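Thread: Newbie trying to understand structure tokens

Hi all, I'm a second-year student working on a class project, and my supervisor (Dr. K.) asked me to get a predicted structure for one chain before our next meeting. I've only ever worked with sequences, so writing a 3D structure as a token string is new to me. If someone could post the tokens and maybe explain what I'm looking at, I'd be very grateful. Here's the chain:
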Amino acid sequence: MLRVKEVAKRLKVHPATVYRWINEGRLEAVRYGKPHVCGAAAKGSGGAIRVPESALVGFIPPESSQAA
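---
Reply by user tm_fold:
Sure, no problem. This is what the structure looks like when written as tokens:
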């Protein structure tokens, strides 16, 4: 399992781009761990986001995200 920062480094993009791909459903990710604040789980915060290495195999970043 890779951290978002590690995925961004491998794909040569900003970590915010990786988070966007995860939110759009383009990149598989897993959230685990306890929320830091009571009730935060309902809001989607807390825990850690990890990307399985298998999700990167064959992953092709969208054209609009690539640097020229």
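A couple of things are worth pointing out once you decode it. The chain is about 40% helix and 15% strand. The helical segments are 4-11, 15-24, 40-43, 53-56. Feel free to ask follow-ups in this thread.
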